[in-house]
Write a structure and sequence with these properties.
single chain, about 375 residues, alpha+beta, Alpha-Beta Plaits, 5-stranded mixed beta sheet, about 10% strand, transmembrane, GGDEF_dom, diguanylate cyclase, coiled coil, Diguanylate_Cyclase
Length: about 375
Amino acid sequence: MLRPIQLFPALTDTVNVRYKVIFLNNVFTFAGLVSLAMSVIRWNTNPFLGKVDLLFACAAFILLWILHRHHKMVELIASIALWLCFVQFLIVFFLANGNPTRSGLLLLILASAFYLKGRQAGYSMLAIILALVVGNHLSGLFPSEFKNLDILSLGFYMLAQFFIIHNYESLRETQTSHLKALNANLEALVKQRTEQLAAVNSALEKEKENLTRLSSTDHLTGLSNRHHFENVFAEYSPATRGKTSDALILIDIDNFKKINDTYGHVLGDKVLKSVAACIKKHSRASDITVRWGGDELIVYAPRTSLKQAYQLAEKMRKQIHLLDITEIDTITISAGVAVLQAGDTLSHLLHRADNALYEAKQAGRNNVYSAALG
């Protein structure tokens, strides 16, 4: 693909491409028709200028055709059009004395340069035209009907146009910069508010999690509390219960009342927390450890057979027996194990586990007994 010679800096704002195409389409159509008409009018009086007008009419229509087929080449086409207009202006200005279209061409060139190629290109084109007009008047290279006052007036006019456009462009850039700054500030504010809202939401979620955890946790032992376990068990539908082999281990600390009476509730709480921590440590990730009430603790073991639950309870019993609390010689537990059966409620399951626990106690404590499968 051909690239334009950088005689003037090209604008890279793709948003303006569509408007440039529309502008050039109108300019080429108008300039082509006017040049064609002027070639007919001037052909007899000045054959050279008539041929020049015809040539530029053909160039305008060719550029119009290229523009319709290759919109992406708008920068190259704009550069070519500006230089053709510039050359046409020079020919008409210096060779067609007394022709009133010269000022119109001047305005067309400058307006096109400022719009299509930006302020810097427009200033450059304006300076070149002014220098050529004044230079020709002073040197007399081409005949000119302009007087010194006319040239001076033209110079002041073009300088005034320069300052008007400069002030307009400066004002537009200032407004654009201000709008960009406002937009940037707005985006920063929105981002800040979004981050603050996200932080608040995160804090609320954490607080919600903490409240949920506190409402479902026993504050002394850190195990699940009775209310939470009842809710979890209630999620099992009657149709589901008994289809999976879930086990429940009911644990009671031996002689706990005697420990409280002899050593006080502070040491009793210490024993309870130590036993709960040991049970939690040796339970599995899928197990639910619960403080049911007082010194009664529960381990609910999903997908666990009676034999497996018995082995788990025995492991916990042995580990608790190894606990070392200075004020007390030994700590022991008794446990009853039962498995969930079809149609069981929590009360049914607990009743069988409690019966097994009673047998363990009757057998001398520090024992694990299993409820018979019925």
